[in-house]
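Take our chain:
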Amino acid sequence: MARPPRALSPEERALWQRVISSVTPIARAKPVPAPPLVPFAAPVATPSPEPEPARRVKGRVPPPRQPAPPPPKPPRDTLDGGWDRRLSRGLVAPESSIDLHGHTLASAHAMLDRGLDQAVARGDRVLLLITGKPPRPESERPHARGAIRAAVGDWLAASRHADAIAAVRGAHPRHGGQGALYIVLRRSRSPARNF
């Protein structure tokens, strides 16, 4: 329960009166009016200064640098003319073949890797790779055919057996013509025997 306020004694009242009389009230500040709104004016376009004429340089000015051409790839074909003649006439019989018909790109790549592995292990010299015919030039793009044929070059270059490949040539018509390739493998070097 709250107590009622106590009444001031006559001395306390006199003291309070003296305090009140010594205090000057704070003058209230008048509110500052907001600045008047100025209508927005579009910026005036200033004419740009005239560009400086190109300076002439005395003496010979070198032409801009051209990027360096990529370094030439080392020759992959290490066959002599006799090999090329026999391959082009169909006189070389491949020791083994890999048929990539009906495969997806992934399964064809895996099959090519396995086939190369087996051919190198057996010591084969010529491998027939059946890829299917490339698309005809008049065929509509994107080609529905020839994806494996187009990827074979990159697969062989990046293969773990790339150093065992001496050359890749188009096959003779009796071995598949445009739908096949000869992969000529390097002769395996067996260590020399001392007798």
Observations:
- DSSP finds four helices and four strands in the chain.
- The longest strand covers residues 165-170.
- The first helix runs from residue 10 to 22.
